[in-house]
Target: L-type lectin-like domain-containing protein
Amino acid sequence: MKMAAEVRWLLVFLVSCGVSSCHGEAPHRKFEYKYSFKPPYLAQKDGSVPFWEYGGNAIASAENVRLAPSLRSQKGAIWVKQPATFDWWEVELVFRISGRGRIGADGLAFWYTSSKGSYNGSVFGSSDLWTGLGVFFDSFDNDNKHNNPYIMAIVNDGTKEFDHTSDGSSQQLAGCLRDFRNKPFATRARIEYYMNSLTLLFHNGMTNNEQDYDICFRVDNVVLPKNGYFGISAATGGLADDHDVLYFLTTSLYPPGQLPMDGNKVSVEEQAKLHQEYLDYQKKLDEQKEEYRREHPESQKNEFDETFYETESQRELRQIFNGQSQMFDALRELHRKLDEIVGRQERTLSLISQVGQGGVQVAGQPGQQPVLIDTIRRQEVDAVLNNQNVILNTAREIKTFVGEVHSKTESILSNQARAPTAQVQPMGYDYQSFMTEMRDGLNTLKKDVKTTGNVDCPNCLTTSIFLLFVAVQMIILLVYSLYRDNKEAQMKKLY
Ligand SMILES: [Ca+2]
Ligand SMILES: [Ca+2]
Model:
């Protein structure tokens, strides 16, 4: 549990660092007591709250400002007297919204507007058609979408009417679903407006740890009126909660190097005046304390007794709270780990998509630009694989082709072995020599023919004898064919 608490501290630190680091260095901070109130002695004996004015059904006590009590249709507000003299600020609100019902109404509103709103207006106890910022802690689910209690910010230019029927869902700048009713400890909201960024951190009051904030929203490029008034209001409806504000702490924020120098160098008269103011307050306070003691002599003792001893039920309650906050810590730790896992997954996915697009982004040394390493891309891998497949197929085709050729050659060879006439011989030396041999033979024949014309030949065949021989042969052939036709005719007759 100790570990979890440390982790939580670290988380809050990181969030606050993250918020401030976006604008470079952390801003200079100055507590603005004239725009703040806090217990003890929040309200003075006459009921006034220094630097503030309240009205409607609001009641200020030493411990808190009850803006709207848990009665039907109550409205109340408290507004600061002076407009802000600084551009950027952070307001820490510590409040309690509590009631007996499982659901309550209507809610609480924080305001930063160009002019003060009313003390019994229609928007959570103050005026509609405001110019500036309204941050609403809306308890009651008017549009029945089961999304309340809800925290939202609406920036208005003085023309928009708040849409109660839809719980302002169409008008909101940003928001988050958070339960802020009936918490064991006071709930807190830290609203920061710095360099046109509006951030809301929320503490749900489940633990007593003042650092237990988580982020509700952060919006950039928000323009709010200069020299606005801070205010806070609340209202009840048919259902009613107590709406108590314990602390309203304003801090002005200055970008580094822009802290107003006159603010630091207070003139001697002003210093004296402020010192006198302080002494007056101190005196007033002592007087009030003395008066209270005189009026309630027994309360001192009782107060001491009550705070020193713990009743059975108080102890039980405290133990329950402790157990619950431990459970809460464990849950929070689990949530954080889950977030971490989701983050890693997203990172992995983005890396994979980067591989798909080509190149892996590798985080370089701190302070360096990330380096893009040109690695093989997915398409390239696919192309290489395709090429390989094509090559493989072609190789197979070539193999089958070679096989076919081989078998054909085999068959030709075997045919040749059986029938040597079909021998295929290359046009080599043998053929040429054969040709020359034939040419020589023809030449000698020609010579012989020439010589026959000149030399007398007793054994040579004369033309008349040759013709006679041909005629005899023709007659024999004719007779034979006649004989054969006759024979065939006889054979046909027999059949
Ligand atoms: Ca509502
Ligand atoms: Ca709703």
The first strand starts at residue 28 and ends at 31. Confidence is low (pLDDT under 50) at residues 13-23, 360-371, 421-426. The CA atoms of residues 116 and 229 lie 6 Å apart.
